[in-house]
Design a protein that fits this description.
The chain contains five helices and four strands. With 176 residues, the chain is α+β, with helices and mostly antiparallel strands. It is elongated.
């Protein structure tokens, strides 16, 4: 529809132009440019949010690998995520949420500024369906969760909020 207008070829096949064709050819070029810009901006924003979700899930997988390396020696996951940073198994940046700038800058800030909620007390022998790490809040219609078996899964609303609430409440068993 953007290619039609005064001086542009008419559709072939003997078909009369419909109302949409007439509207597009009569539309103000500034309006058309505005509509195209809005559509492009929406696409870029959606792509940016998708990229942040991918980064978050990748960080969670990295934390999951560190949990298993720690557990090889200790037979359990660590008491907190700061222990993984102290042992240089992950960087503190891996605990930052890609969705905001409120990142931990020191070991002391991990508890309050970590982008993820950790469930201490689990082991590699815990039920593989148990959630061990979750994004702190819902984004893009859901949240990512790391399971004891090491996989990361995006779970949609409303279940994502329910699971985050259970983890924050300290419920003993949290499964999707």
């Amino acid at each position: 529809w953007l290619l039609r207008g005064p001086g542009r070829p008419k559709p072939t096949g003997g078909k009369a132009p419909d109302a949409a064709d007439a509207d597009a050819s009569a539309a103000d070029p500034i309006e058309l440019l505005s509509l195209a810009t809005q559509a492009l901006t929406g696409s870029v924003s959606a792509a940016r949010e998708q990229a942040k979700q991918t980064v978050s899930m990748s960080r969670m997988r990295g934390v999951g690998q560190a949990l298993f390396i720690y557990a090889q020696e200790k037979k359990a996951f660590p008491p907190d995520l700061a222990e993984l940073v102290r042992r240089n198994m992950i960087t503190i940046d891996m605990l930052a949420s890609p969705y905001d700038d409120n990142a931990p800058r020191s070991l002391a800030e991990i508890g309050e500024k970590c982008g993820y909620i950790y469930r201490a007390g689990l082991t590699p022998k815990s039920d593989p369906r148990e959630i061990v790490l979750a994004e702190r809040s819902v984004r893009n219609g859901g949240a990512a969760f790391l399971f004891v078996d090491g996989h990361v899964e995006f779970i949609a609303e409303p279940r994502a909020s329910e699971l985050i609430g259970l983890i924050q409440a300290g419920v003993e068993s949290v499964r999707p």
